[in-house]
Specification:
The protein is of the alpha/beta class. The chain is built from 13 helices and 6 strands.
């Protein structure tokens, strides 16, 4: 299942490829050092972050899928922005420098990326990697954490071969309405909270088994939004007028609201910044059609969830002057040199 990695791990035919990558990286490091001595200090490089996932990452079923695609690098050349582009926008607004990449494939878990995409993923020594598995943990055995636990452990091991200090984050995904409320669902007859807890527990187990990785509790933030009246818990019995539907039309994938909350959770946990600091007039929310009230509500849910788990230590959000009405995000600077996906 993970032949490329296992061959490398045991000194097989993949070893020369990895050695070549490491040799090129060492040569470039020496060259950069020489240039630094010749020309003096240079601006710090942006941190590189890779998102590995499926349709939950590239934001199927919403306008987020093709949002600001020119601000991120899609390693599969599918031309998608998705949640990584939202993360990039939030980071830019907070004055944080990230080079954002994504490697996605619909309907798969981390095991698929291990079997098919290690040559792509291994091109670069990532500073941070965000990844998640299949939405029911195992498509053949829904609710069984075994596949997730083993594939996370193997992927983390591979990522550490190119950067032993890489920060790895696991996105504990949301409960699916179709799996809970429809009679063919694996969680039918149970509750949204139960599915969310099952998914979260599996990711906690996977994180512990791979060297204490950080878990981003996206599913728990969805449950919090429902419990606090921000979101409707059941899209099949109608959506209350004053609540958001976090799912899109299929009760499976997220809506623009759901992906926005996912991106807020990622931003807050990865950067340590209070999501509320982006303000109710956050520009991506405006561009995607959210009201200022909805933006503020989702920022608050993200902060409350992160604070409840002691995963954010930022001070309370500061009140800052906000443009009225909200404005579009700053245009992308096409002159900004972008690191090529093939560069190591």
């Amino acid at each position: 299942m993970v032949s490329h990695y296992l061959k490398w791990q045991h000194g097989g035919e993949g070893e020369p490829v990895i050695k070549a990558i490491l040799h090129r990286r060492a040569w470039r490091t020496q060259l950069a050092a020489a240039l630094l001595l010749s020309f003096g200090a240079v601006p710090a490089l942006a941190a590189s972050i890779l998102f590995i996932g499926n349709s939950f990452t590239y934001a199927y079923g919403s306008p987020v899928r093709y949002y600001r695609v020119d601000t991120v690098t899609d390693l599969n050349s599918d031309g998608q922005g998705g949640v990584p582009a939202l993360f990039k926008s939030f980071a830019d607004q907070a004055g944080l420098s990230y080079e954002v990449f994504l490697e996605t494939e619909p309907g798969v878990g981390i095991d698929w990326h291990l079997s098919h995409k290690l040559p792509v993923i291994g091109r670069h020594a990532w500073d941070a990697v965000v990844m998640h598995g299949y939405s029911t943990l195992d498509p053949a055995k829904p609710g069984d954490p075994g596949l997730l636990v083993s594939s996370v452990r193997q992927m983390a091991g591979f990522l550490r071969t190119t950067n032993g200090k890489v920060d790895i984050f696991l996105t504990a995904t949301w409960p699916r309405a179709d799996q809970v409320y429809l009679d063919q669902g694996a969680w039918y007859g149970k509750s949204i909270e139960v599915m969310a807890k099952d998914i979260r527990n599996a990711y906690n187990q996977a994180a512990a088994g791979a060297g204490s990785l950080k878990v981003v509790p996206v599913g728990d933030s969805w449950v919090r939004a429902m419990r606090t009246g921000v979101a409707d818990p059941n899209p099949y019995d109608g959506i209350d007028a004053d609540k958001m539907n976090l799912w899109t039309y299929d009760g499976y994938h997220a809506s623009v609201y759901g992906y926005y909350l996912e991106a807020m959770m990622l931003f807050g946990l990865i950067t340590g910044h209070d999501p509320r600091g982006l303000g109710q007039h956050e520009c991506s929310g405006f561009e995607l059609g959210l009201s200022s009230t909805q933006v503020a509500a989702l920022e608050q849910v993200a902060f409350d969830q992160l604070a409840a788990e002691s995963t954010i230590s930022a001070p309370a959000a500061r009140t800052a002057p906000m443009p009225s009405p909200p404005t579009r995000c700053a245009a992308t600077d096409s002159r900004r040199p972008k690191r090529r996906a093939s560069e190591n």
